[in-house]
Design brief:
7 strands
C-alpha cells in the first residue's frame, strides 16, 4: 500500500528536475499523476514514465488554469513547482526580468491555489505544496535579490492561504518546501540567463558544484530528496501540517 493510494495529484513544471522526480515518486506511492509544463516533450515523457496524464500549461496564463481545473476531474493534491531563476546583480536586472520571474514564480503559484484549491476542496480535501527555496527564508548573495523576493513571497502567501483554508473549513492544507542546492537543469538555465556569479567562464567547476560550497558537507542534493518531502506533505501522514515550511537543505540554513 502506498501513502498516496487513490489520490490524484497535479504537478506543474513536471518536465524536469524536482517536478519530474515528484511525479515519479508520487506515482510510486500510489498516486495518479497529472503532469503539466510548457515543455511538452519533457512533460509527456514524465507522464509516460509515471503512468499518468499530461497537459501543456504555462502557469502564468489564467485562462489555461481554468481549462486545466475543468479537465482535471477530482484532485487531492497540487504541487506548484514550475519556477525559473534569473540570476543577475541587482543593478543589472531589468524591470522586464523582475516581472518575468514574478509572473512564473509568484503569480503562477497564486493562480494555481486560486483555481485548484476549490477543486481539491470539492473532491473531499487534500494538500497543496508550493516550491519556495532557502532563498525565500533569508537574504541572499549577489545575483539572487530578485529570485529571493519571489521565493519569500511564496513562503508568506503559503502561510496566509493555509490560514484562510483552515479557518473556512475547506480541508485543504497548504505548505511550502524550501530546497537548498539541488542538482537539476535549473543551474544550467540560470547560468545561460546572463551575467551572474553562476556563469563565470574562468571557473573550473560547474554552477551547482560552486554553489554546493555553501552546503555543510559540500555536496548538492538530488531532486528525489525534495520529492520525498513533497510526497510526505501530500500524504495523510502530514494531516496536522499546514502553513509550515519544510526545509530540505542539508543544514545550509541551520547556522554558521
Ligand atoms: N534546483 C534547486 O537548487 C532549487 C532550489 C530551491 C528551489 N528550487 C525550486 O524548485 C522548483 C523546480 O526547480 P528545478 O530545479 O526542478 O528546475 P528545472 O529548471 O529543472 O524545472 C523547472 C520546470 O518548470 C518549467 N517551467 C518554467 N516556466 C514555466 C511556466 N511558465 N509554466 C509552466 N512550466 C514552466 C520548466 O519547463 C521546467 O520543466 C522551482 O520552483 C525552483 O525555483 C530549486
Amino acid at each position: 500500500m502506498g501513502v498516496l493510494d487513490g489520490k490524484v495529484i497535479l504537478i506543474t513544471g513536471a518536465a524536469s528536475g524536482i517536478g519530474r522526480a515528484t511525479a515519479l515518486a508520487a506515482a510510486a506511492a500510489g498516486a495518479s499523476v497529472l503532469a503539466t509544463d510548457i515543455d511538452e516533450a519533457g512533460g509527456r515523457e514524465t507522464a509516460e514514465r509515471a503512468g499518468g496524464r499530461f497537459m501543456p500549461q504555462d502557469v502564468t496564463n489564467e485562462a489555461r488554469w481554468r481549462e486545466v481545473a475543468e479537465a482535471a476531474g477530482p484532485l487531492h493534491g497540487l504541487v506548484n513547482n514550475a519556477g525559473i531563476a534569473i540570476v543577475r546583480p541587482l543593478l543589472e536586472t531589468s524591470l522586464e526580468d523582475w516581472r518575468k520571474q514574478q509572473a512564473v514564480n509568484v503569480e503562477g503559484v497564486f493562480l494555481g491555489v486560486k483555481h485548484i484549491l476549490p477543486v481539491i476542496r470539492d473532491s473531499g480535501g487534500g494538500s497543496i505544496v508550493n516550491l519556495s527555496s532557502v532563498a525565500g527564508l533569508r537574504g541572499n548573495s549577489v545575483g539572487l535579490s530578485c529570485y529571493s523576493a519571489t521565493k519569500g513571497a511564496v513562503c508568506l502567501f503559503t502561510k496566509s492561504a493555509a490560514l484562510e483554508s483552515a479557518r473556512r473549513g475547506w480541508n485543504v492544507r497548504v505548505n511550502s518546501v524550501h530546497p537548498g542546492i539541488i542538482d537539476t537543469p535549473i543551474w544550467d538555465r540560470m547560468a545561460e540567463s546572463g551575467p551572474s556569479p553562476f556563469n563565470d567562464p574562468t571557473a573550473s567547476t560547474d554552477p551547482v558544484q560552486r554553489a554546493s560550497g555553501r552546503v555543510p558537507g559540500g555536496r548538492p542534493g538530488g531532486p528525489e530528496n525534495i520529492a520525498d518531502g513533497i510526497v510526505f506533505l501530500l500524504s495523510d501522514n502530514a494531516s496536522y501540517m499546514t502553513g509550515s515550511e519544510l526545509v530540505i537543505d542539508h543544514g545550509m540554513t541551520a547556522g554558521s
